[in-house]
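Chapter review: from sequence to fold.
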Amino acid sequence: MVPPIAIVFATLFLVICIVAVFVYLCYRRYMNGEKTILVNTELTLSSEGVNNG
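The token string follows.
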């Protein structure tokens, strides 16, 4: 049996990680503006498509 404390700590860790990623993405969107992020995503996808075939 896994002790309940371990489950609580794992859940807290997971929640903190999710919140941290969310805050990071929002911060980048706020700093760069949505257009640059969309352009970067499109460039990345198109370059990957070219590299793959």
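Two observations follow directly from the output. The longest helix spans residues 4-32. The chain has two helices and no strands.
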